[in-house]
Amino acid sequence: MKRAVRSFALGVAVVATILAGMPAAEAQTTSAAAMGQITCKVNPNRPHESHGKPGWIVGKSQYWCTAGIDSLVNTVKLQKKVKGKWVTAAKSKSESVKNPKGNKKYRNQTRNYKCRKGTFRTASRGHGVYKGVPSKSMHWQYSKAVKNPC
Questions:
Q1: 3-class DSSP assignment, residue 5
Q2: Is the pTM of this model over 0.90?
Q3: For residue 74, which of 120, 33, 109, 46 has the smallest C-alpha distance?
Q4: 25, 115, 122, 124: which one has the fewest Cβ atoms less than 10 Å from its Cβ?
Q5: CA 137, CA 150: separation in Å to the nearest integer?
């Protein structure tokens, strides 16, 4: 299934538009910068059992831009499906990178959540600052759901 992807400008004007046809787990932001387009992406990974801490579930996300900007912020959380609704299972974690390098992937993850049965997904969103102008926050993007990830 494909979802609409939110796009916003990083720079002089801050404008939000909706683009269709992009993969569900990947959000895209664009900017008309002096040197061309700057694209930033957020990619929430499927929840899985922690390799460093077996017995715990973790939700991870990757985020990056195609060029350097002032700063980039990413928030990620682990969600569990309860009675047909998604609820936050692990507390959100927000991470900020000052002067992120272009095309360098940064990673963020939730705090570990004790393994238990259920259906889980990772939620992630971000925003950036370019030449001192903040973008609007990107809408949440979601990984595919995983049943009993441990």
A1: strand
A2: no
A3: 109
A4: 115
A5: 32
